[in-house]
Every structure is written in structure tokens, then in C-alpha cells.
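Researcher: Please generate the 3D structure of the following complex. Treat every line as part of one assembly.
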Amino acid sequence: MTLEYESPLRVAIQGVRGAFHEIAARETLGNDIIPVECLTFRELVAATESEKVDAALMAIENSVAGGILPNYALLRNSELQIVGEVYLRIVQNLLALPGETLESIKEVESHPMAIQQCTDFLGEHPEWKIIESEDTALSARKISEGEIRGKAAIGSSLAAELFGLNILAPEIESNKENYTRFLILTKKDGKIRNTTSNKASICFSAKHEPGALAAILKDIADCGVDLTMLHSLPKVGAKWEYIFHADLVYDSYMQYLQAVKTLNETATYFKVLGEYQAGSEIF
Amino acid sequence: MTLEYESPLRVAIQGVRGAFHEIAARETLGNDIIPVECLTFRELVAATESEKVDAALMAIENSVAGGILPNYALLRNSELQIVGEVYLRIVQNLLALPGETLESIKEVESHPMAIQQCTDFLGEHPEWKIIESEDTALSARKISEGEIRGKAAIGSSLAAELFGLNILAPEIESNKENYTRFLILTKKDGKIRNTTSNKASICFSAKHEPGALAAILKDIADCGVDLTMLHSLPKVGAKWEYIFHADLVYDSYMQYLQAVKTLNETATYFKVLGEYQAGSEIF
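Model: Done. Output below.
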């Protein structure tokens, strides 16, 4: 990562503390961040725009489920820019109060998505009652605060650390190739500067005629710039007209600028959402 | 619609009766269908594959929120084919027991998404307590079955009809341009035949080199076939490799077959998910 900023940063995360957004924030912006919980992605964007926080982490894509499309529209309509990204492996653990064992557990509580990610492990324990909750980290916190015995939560190792729980069983997720991509967002001219880039997120519209999109993509490719993601999103208010969101990767910033010049000339709408260093995968 | 089948069809819908999936099913396959409730989209696909039902309706895209990407992967990995589609305007109503008025209502219950769609209307009644539920139609059914007074649900006019509720306030959704696109699915060689088509849903992979996608899209455009939707989806198990899902529209079936031939030659993976008549918009 090639970000420059003064610590500590106030960083908005979606959900409660101890969830994967906080892990992504710590891995990218340091352990001394001040996490600010936001209930929804909309609230997270608003907090960053109003400078209540210096930055935000936003999940945008998952290697199993695909893009989180509503977040693209939120980003496009915001005053924020993307300054970085990270790919975080989603590792789930069985968490409970100190002293508990797999045998003493009677109930397991977590978010439906986390429960689904751990079906193989949970299948080995048909005696456990499974309870759905709003948030993995919230389930962990409730067990900790209520000192609830006989109950476990599924969640991150950070949640165990924050709430003083033991990891009864580590890495219980069925799919070890489940990564979520998070974007680091700041207000334009905000407190984080990125000095180099080899990736950009853009959105654009093409003329409503056959071949218009193919022509734009060919122009981009002809500049030596590669496309790593593409989604057509409905243009709200203009029924079934589309805006395309794409990620571009490049070795040379000059080649990327050439692609930008082409897009400015040929696309009917064009906006750069951010230029940043392609993220690494974190375990 | 140019579908041929013998009525009545058993039709899987996602969610409970009275929800928008059932409206889409009735509008496309007739009022004499036998609706079969499925809790999840995965269950809906399995019921259709096992011929427990003759067909299924599946929401795939919304004009505000965008594509429902996990459903593309479900479709791609299934033995089902798309035989039709419909665009349904999402109209929300305030439903309550006969005898209730706007003044007698104290609580309003519905799915969080429906509540969000009606924020303008609900904002005019700050005296109401808002309660979130799992399903719009379920909230309506509970009020009906429990004969709960002073409580209203937000839901479809079909839910009002099915559960004997009155419409206290019609069309309370803020955005009148909120359409959801539903696909009609059957098992291959199932009980529904479609005789004509001017639209196809396909998925394909391109070589992992700059310009490969642009070249494929240009080939499609050169056949005189237009592209109306495009999403890159992660290939599960092959981290950050992508499969593209696209919709093609055409005037001439021969031109479409030409595009299919080209795709078979140039794409590294290619599958047709269905050929069908482009759907109309239903109010």
C-alpha cells in the first residue's frame, strides 16, 4: 500500500466492531485507527462525506457471491474517491466464553450468511440449536456481555480478541477460497493521499446503439489497459438504460491517461471513481 | 408471450403467497396456476429440477438496485432454461382489516425493503410504529389470520385479495419507476414450449488477455445482435477469474445463430441459458 496519512485515522466500518470491515480497516490503515460503526452503507458514505470520519472501508465484491451492486450506485453518486483496496479471506471461527468446550455448547448464533458458510462444520454437530442473528460480531458481543454459557457465536478472530472469547474451533468455513474485496474511501482532497496507482475504477455510459460498448472496450484495450471487472447497472429514473462500472489495470499511467482521454471523447457519460494500487490478498 | 403449455401449471415462487413472485407468475402463466412456495432461490431451482413443479418465477434484476447476481450463478449451474421474462412494476399498498382507517392504525409492519420504498408516505405518519418483518405478504397474512386490529402491512394488492384485507392507501411507493424483472424457468424439455424468440441470455468466459472481451463483444455486434446487459461474475474456485453473463436481443434468429457460432469459436466457455420473447412491462 502506498498511502500517506497521519495516524490515528477515524475510519467508518459497516456493521459493529469485530466484524470483517474492522479487520480490513486495521490491515490497511493500521491498528491505531478509531473505528466508527455505521449501520448501513448509506450511513457509511454520509459519515465520510460530512467528514465525521477521515476514511471508510466498504465491501464491494465477494469471490463467491459476486459484486455488491447497490454499493456501486452509492459510490457513483457520492463525493468520495477510492484510494485503495484489499482482498480479505473470510475466516470463520467458533467463539465462546473461556471454559466452554465443544461438548458444553448447546446453541450457536450468527448471521445467516456465516451459518451458511460453515454448513460442513455445523453438520458434524446436529445436537446444536442454530440461531440466526443480525451480525456475527454482535452475537459474539452478546455472549461476552451477558456471560452466556452453553452458547457459541460464529465470527472473526478479532471478535474473539475484542470481546474476550476463546476460539473453540478455528477456520470452520467450508470454502477456503472465500475472499471479500474492500475499498478504502475518502472525501476528495481528504486526509489520505495515494502516491502511485496501477488500477482505476470508472463508470461510463455508451451510446444506445449496437456495438457502442464493444467499441469503447476496444479503445481501452488498444491503449494497453486491461479490464478486470464490468457490470451494467440500471440508470435510476431512466428505465433499463445502463451505466457500466469497470475496473482497469495498467503498467503505465500514461497508457491509462490515454484510455481516459478516449473515454472522455466517446462515452456519453464518464467518471473516475478512484486511482489506486491494486490490493493484495490478506489471510 | 408465445408460450405453449397445458394448464394448470405448478409454479414455484420465492417467498410466500401474495408476494410479487406470485403476481409475476399469474401475469405470465395464468390465474389458474398452482403456486408452490419456496423459502430460498436455491430451493426454487431444486424444486424445478426435480420436477416437483412445472416452472418457476425468479427475480433477476431490479431497475433501482441492479442485478441479483447470486441468481445468475444458480441459473448457470442448474439444468433449467429461461423460456420467458416479465417486467413487473413494484406497487406497494397499505393493507389492514376491514373497518380500519388511517386514523385507527398504530403500527405498520413489512419487509425492510418495502418500508424503505415507502419512506415518503410513512414520513407523513410519524405517529405510526414501524416494525420490520421477513416478508411483505407474511405480514399481511399474520394480520388476517390473527385478526390484529390497529395494525397495517405494506404489500401487494394480491396479498389484500388473498388474505381478505382492505387497501387503506394505494400506490404508496415513493419511486413509480421501480420495476423488477422476473425470469420464467423450466427444466429442459419441460412442460412449457416457447415458439419464437428475440432475446437470449448467455454466459461465457474470455481468454485472460487484454482486449479479449472487447473482441467477443465486437463479434456479437458485427452479427447485428445487440447487448442489453453484461455482468462479470467470479468463477467459484478460480479466484478472481470471471464469467460474463449477458443478454442479447435480435430481430433475426439467423443473426443470433451467427453470434452463437462466433462465441462457440472464440469464447473459452459458452452456455446459452435460454432463448425467449423479450418481456413487456406490467403495471
